[in-house]
Amino acid sequence: MTQSLINIDGRVLAAIDPSVYAASVASLAAWAATHLGAPFELLHVIARDPSIAPPDLSGNLSMDTTQVLLGELAALDEQRAKMAQAHGRELLQQLQSEVLVKSGVTATITQRHGVLVDTLLDLELATRLIVIGKRGEHADFAKGHLGSNLERVVRAVHRPVLVAAREYRPISRFLVAFDGSATTRTCIEMICASPLLRDVECHVLMVGDDTTDHRDALAWAQAQLTSAGFTPTMHLQPGSADTTIARHVDELKADLLVMGAYGHSRIRTMILGSTTTQLLRTCHIPVLLLR
Fold it and tell me: In terms of pLDDT, which residue wins out, 37 or 62?
């Protein structure tokens, strides 16, 4: 086992916004930074409010009136930007103080203007792990939709992404969704190579029929984890992947689900109905997405 599978340098980067997930993201990132022995940074990216549409000034307005209105709108945009910056800075400082008190972890804070995905791509070279909430401040909670930023981030970045649930709780038991594929074998190897989940109770679930191939794949995963110091409990269950994994999360009272992320393939835009997306929507615990 080599550490080349993981980035052993860099920060834990927590992307926060003024949503109900902010405190959970910060606490989960502080936990991860502690276990990784990595620097911890809280990031707030200020984007244009999508609910504010530019007005249609076409019509019978005079040139002078149009210029006056454009000037007033520019001033209003500037005022909104200053307010968003001030509120974001206040949120960052509040979370910085909370994680120091609760976890004893010192976080640096960063605020930028722009698009979250682009900002994370700019910063990922010096980043070890990205932590983000399942939904952001503009998500539709009633319909259970994932935040649009989450799906874009997970598909774009090349670092592990830890998706925070709405409420934070300590991580004492994790479940790995394993199917024997090359992707999930890499997940097992990354878990073994990283200190993140050491001393956390480990379970591995394969969904499928009780066949020799499945038993052999589970035996391989068990051997890898055992050699890395884990004491894994292996599970082989028939059924559909999304419902069986979700049921085991509940039955085991797992605090963290580990699974493969979306691929960087030409068909990635067709994955919206995948097991990954379904479990992100339905599971009420953090999900660690590896690739």
Answer: 37
| Stated pTM of the model | 0.84
Question: Angle at CA 173, nearest 5°, toward 107 and 97?
Answer: 20
Phi, psi of 40 (to 5 degrees): -130, 130
| pLDDT at residue 9 in the model | 82
Sheet with 256-260, strands from edge to edge, namely: 107-113, 40-46, 11-16, 127-133, 161-164, 287-290, 256-260, 173-177, 201-207, 233-237
Closest CA to 1 of 216, 226, 228: 228
| Structural domains present in the chain | 7-50+83-164 (3.40.50.620), 173-285 (3.40.50.620)
| Contact (Cβ atoms closer than 8 angstroms) between residue 203 and residue 233 | yes
Residues 260, 187: contact at Cβ < 8 Å?
Answer: yes
The CB density around residue 16, as the number of other CB atoms within 10 Å, is 26
